[in-house]
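re: ur msg from earlier - yeah i can do the magnesium ion complex, just paste it... oh wait u already did. ok heres what im feeding in:
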Amino acid sequence: MSLEAVPAALPMVRLEGVSKTYRRGTVAVPVLEAVDLSIATGAFEAFMGPSGSGKSTLLNLISGLDRPSTGIVEVAGRNLAELDDRELSDWRAAHVGFIFQLYNLIPVLTAAENVELPLLLTPLSRAERRRHVAAALDLVGLSHRVSHRPPQMSGGEQQRVAIARAIVTDPDLIIADEPTGDLDRKAAEAVLDLFGVLHQELHKTLVMVTHDPHAAERAGRVHHLEKGVLQ
Amino acid sequence: MVPLFYNARSLWARRLSTGLTVVGLGLVVFVFSAVLMLANGIESALASGGDASNAVILRKGATGELVSGVERDAVRILTTDPAVASGPDGAPLVSGELVVLVTLPRGGTQEMNTTARGISAGSFTARPEVRLVSGRKPRSGTNEVALGSALVGSSPDATLGGELHFAQQRWPVVGVFEARGGAFESELWADATRLGAAFGRDGFSSALVRLRSPVAVADFVKRVEADPRFTLEAKPEPEYWADQASGLATFIRVLGLFVSFVFSVGAVLGAMITMYAQVATRIAELGMLRAVGFRRRSVLASVVAESAMLGAAGGVLGALGALATRWIHIRTLNFQTFAEVSFGFTPTPGIVVGALLFGTLMGLLGGLLPALRAARLSILDALRA
Ligand SMILES: Nc1ncnc2c1ncn2[C@@H]1O[C@H](COP(=O)(O)OP(=O)(O)OP(=O)(O)O)[C@@H](O)[C@H]1O
Ligand SMILES: [Mg+2]
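and the outut:
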């Protein structure tokens, strides 16, 4: 994976000496240990590793959903430790798009309304929001399902709605935790094709956790985690 | 802001529990507003009696006509007051009136107490709001009676042309009158002298004095109080009737508000349980909202708003139910006058608005703790759910 034209470009994600320890009662459970990592802007990178190795934990640190026990997490040049909880919420809204394994769509809202949710945190007008939603749903090939609700859609379609929701605010960074984990081969391919489009045509930075070697193949680089240690 | 239609649709998605909660809230709002409407109805039934130019004379300290006594001499002295108005025949409009309770059969073995008012020549003239709707006025010196319209049909013979029996005498009904919904409509009127004779009473209970104008009333009241020739007091007639109504209305209002308050605790708990369940079943949705950047306080506001919707729906339901009671009429004993009065549920815009606010407030209160829980959720725990 080449580092674009400007070698001095800031990495999108930079982790330095990051460790995470959970406390279970009185016992401290180390989940991540001394992780150093850099992900270039515009890169598509995947994390693999056995269950419980700390992949989701790492992703949560990068996306500002969780804080490290020690070490520095810097995203788009911003040290996340400088932000308090509320600022971190606003920061996520502005910079990160989330794709979850179980889609996490709201079943009582239509596809378009689901996609619109993150836009409600922006100052965009109603008409502008509608335009962005239409464009995002068009990109994922679901223009014909705008007013359908998640329970009326297949898993693959729901995940594509979730992808539209993740990109509708045009975030710097897209985070996907096992995005194809619940999908069959065909639907998974469609989702991965979309990731290819986001990466190659829209130059988005994508960070994905997956168990699926086919999915990992699409990434420019694959990291392996083993018991909280980056290999 | 999380859009409100998300909350509305989530409530609709679980319409059974939503519906039951709304019914519970609605019942409390119903009780609340029905009771206020009832107290209001009582007040307007009893208190709308009275003309601003009239003063009611009672014995000093008497709380009502039933426990008051006014001598014939005193009535004669009052006619000499310069502010007293004259009737068409030139006679001063001072009417001694005798108020007694009569017992009428209600059909079957039941009986009811009714106020009988013994009237004098000026009684009809001094009360412009009292209007005959059929028949004629009772002639003086006879046992003829006129019925307030609320009494018609309340007793088997209480109709125009019927004949009432009380105090071992016959009292033919020769007329029916209305009094703009006021207390007189629950009375029967007969000649004061005949009624006094039948009940062995000399003198009057009260006197009604019509003055030349409403502005003369205040001075007249002072003159009566200060007059050393008798121990009487005068009250503007509207004030007298308002006093008569206030006891019962206040009692019903206080009792009703107390009952509503007690019930509302249950309804608030109901709303709380429903909202806890809503939050619990939607933890993953709430976690997603927080992850994509909605702040804690947006989630808090969203859950509170949802609960307030629940309450507002209960408010609408309860207010509509209460409005439906407009067609119910009640007869009951006014323990201040010991006579039956008839009244309905009288809504006001204030009561309707109050009902909606009360419902919304209950919803709001019930939603607070569930909303706090939702806002305090750890995003990661919520996403794992
Ligand atoms: N909040 C928490 N409290 C305590 N332990 C936790 C917490 N979150 C995660 N863990 C533990 O940290 C370890 C790593 O969890 P993580 O979810 O990152 O694994 P993962 O690699 O994503 O696994 P999987 O492939 O099953 O999703 C696990 O042993 C897990 O039990
Ligand atoms: Mg995981």
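cool cool. Residues A 55-56, 177 surround magnesium ion (ligand 2) (CB under 6 Å). ping me if u need the other ligands too
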